[in-house]
Amino acid sequence: MTGAAEDARLLRQLRVADFLSREAKLLDEWRLEEWLALFTDDARYVVPGTDDPQADPSRSLVLVDDDRERLGWRVKRLLSGHAHREFPWSRTRRIVSNVLVEDSPPGRIFAGASFVVWRFRHRHADPFIGHADYDLVDDGAGLRIAAKRITIDQESLSPNGALSMIL
Amino acid sequence: MNIAPLILDDRARGVFRVHRSTMTSEDMLALERERIFSRAWLYVGHESELAEPGAYRRRSVGGRPLVFVRGADSVIRVLHNTCPHRGAIVCRQDAGVAKTFQCFYHAWTFDNRGQLVGVPDEAAYAPGFDRSERSLQPVARHDSYRGFHFVCFDRDAGALGDYLAGAREILDLVVDQSLDGRMQVVSGEQRYSIRANWKLLAENSIDGYHAAPVHRTYLAYLQGTGAMRPGETVVTGRARALGNGHAVIEYRAPWGRPVARWAPTFGEVARGEIEAIRAELRSRYGDERAERIADWNRNLLIFPNLVVNDIMAVTLRTFSPIGAAEMDVTAWEIAPGEESGERLARRLHSFLEFLGPGGFATPDDVEALDSCQIGFAADGVEWSDISRGMAREPRPDDELQMRSFWREWHARMTGTRRSDWSDGRFAA
Question: Which residues contact A80 (CB under 8 A, 6 or more apart)?
């Protein structure tokens, strides 16, 4: 790769890392409506089960398979004060790292990042550890998320019990 | 330990109470392992999970590692997952297809029927070394009902069919959703654990009373998507004790059912197809049974730890105690064997709107169970109250289902026999 192409790649990577850090901040601060606004209208948000990270949600049972509408309902639910496992909200802290940008078509950025999300509630500290793959729209108006797919590394949601907040 | 006084069952006064030490004591759990999990029939898996000869699933049932496997002879067996030589786990992957299982410790090899077929340097053993008595050991009892396989670790237990009692009829209603009479477990497991006593999930899974308060946000979603009218009653129907501690609530509810009750969340495109399935059920079973299959929901508990909830999708759920205040849960989706493509995708979408650790409802159930377990530590209140509906014809939002469970629990724990699990006067 030439120096200029390498510089462009690193610049894109930096933009993505900046975007993902801001996304993490919105989630940690429970600014979920602002977080939802990061998604395109046709976005998909998927969390496969711990048994098969490659699962296709149209053929296999997963944990979360939201289109934009259901993601909106998820946010609404979590902000309602009646999502009992998250009211009061748990404290979370996300460490997003190992950001890598893949070869992508014009106007898109395929990227991945590893994460550790700590969740604190009822005197328990339950981590979620994994990786997120993104399909980002880059059309000059700032990055937006067209697809986000999570891989949870734990063999089971144990001791977490549920995926009650958003990864 | 004196178990007898830990349940207060006063039918005359309509009062039923459970002492909370039943859910906090490790000694109690040790006794449950001996008197319940070592003697009752326990669900191990579904035949559809073993599609071809050699297919296997590693399972943990009542805390025991097992292999659920279809042999080269097509026979389904359940084997203890421990090497007869020195104890190591022989099957070390969750699922796959294998001709043989080789213990990695000393390389003893077993075929997929469990027979010992290879021992390195077998000549080192005395003459008369008998391979057959060193084969993988089958569980004491294994039987199935309409594709659902169960094991029992008590050689003297009664037959599975008798054990299931009235639960068979409910399983029939679930399986008859498939026009081939053949259900499939959809790939993908939901695995999670809850910091609560296992019996709290038995109660919760068939509890109609909690639906409105706990799942308010789900009901708001149903209203928002047009499936439910404001002010509509959440559940109407009945509760029944099915014998041997099994129980069911059967009810009408606002959500859609893939077989076969259309709701707006399924989309207009699906409307015709769902109506066609409904019509086919009618012509096959007659109006009454077709309506029962298509419109009525069923939350079924098969004592002690199998739940079949046939609601906006059908989930199978089992749970095993890890400690007095912790359990592991595994959940699957089952669907008619003939479902695929868009129809299966629709069902999966419907499942996730409510069910599972990432759904709009299950996380709040998990919280309720956690909360009960934390509350038990508050002390000062010794008993939990499960009296609701004891003096009337039981409704799905009453608590007969739980009383039926606890009556069987009590009988097994005290070594007594029961013949009636209902509230007496209002026998199902």
Answer: B216, B217, B220
Which chain A residues are Cβ-neighbours of B185 within 8 angstroms?
Answer: none
Q: How far apart are CA B224 and CA B303, in angstroms?
A: 37
The chain A residue lying nearest B361, using CA atoms, is A83
User: What Å distances lie between residue A26 and A20, A22, A32, A114, A167, CA to CA?
Assistant: 10, 6, 7, 17, 11
DSSP one-letter code for B244: T
- Nearest one of B24, B19, B14 to B3, comparing CA atoms: B19
Domains of chain B: 42-145 (2.102.10.10), 166-414 (3.90.380.10)
pTM: 0.95
Extract the residue ranges of chain B whose pLDDT is less than 70.
Answer: 425-428
Is pLDDT above 60 for A8? yes
- Helix or strand or coil: residue B411? helix
Contact in structure between B407 and B374 (CB atoms under 8 Å)? no
Helices (DSSP H) in A29-111: which residue ranges?
Answer: 32-36, 68-79
CA distance A160 to A152: 12
pLDDT digits (tens, 9 = 90+) for B76-111: 999 999 999 999 999 999 999 999 999 999 999 999
pLDDT category, A140, cuts 50, 70, 90? confident
> What is the pLDDT at residue B428?
42
User: Would the ipTM clear 0.90, i.e. be above it?
Assistant: yes
Number of other residues whose CB lies within 10 A of the CB of residue A110: 16
- Within-domain flag for A59: yes
Pairing, β A64-67 against β A39-47: antiparallel
CA distance A66 to A43: 8
Confirm whether A163 is domain-assigned: no
Positive or negative torsion for Cα B50, B53, B55, B56 = positive
Domain with residue A108: its CATH number is 3.10.450.50
Is A165 contained in some domain?
no
8 A C-beta contact, residue B183 and residue B337: yes
Q: Which amino acid is at A20?
A: L
* Pairing relationship of beta strands A39-47 and B15-19 according to DSSP bridges: unpaired
Alpha carbons B175 and B47: distance in angstroms, whole number = 13
Instruction: Tell me the Cα Rg of chain B.
Output: 23
Band (pLDDT 50/70/90 cuts) for residue A23 is very high
- B328 near A CB under 8 A: yes
How many domains is chain A built from? 1
User: Is the peptide bond between B394 and the residue preceding it cis, with omega within 30 degrees of 0?
Assistant: no
User: Could you tell me the residue range of the domain that residue A31 belongs to?
Assistant: 3-152
Residue at A44 is within a domain: yes
Q: Which of A80, A83, A157 minimises the CB distance to B357?
A: A157
Tokens of B313: 């999708």
Check CB contact under 8 Å for B368 and A51.
Answer: no
| Neighboring chain B residues of A63 at a CB cutoff of 8 Å | 190, 352, 356-358
Span A47-103, pLDDT tens digits: 999 999 999 999 999 999 999 999 999 999 999 999 999 999 999 999 999 999 999
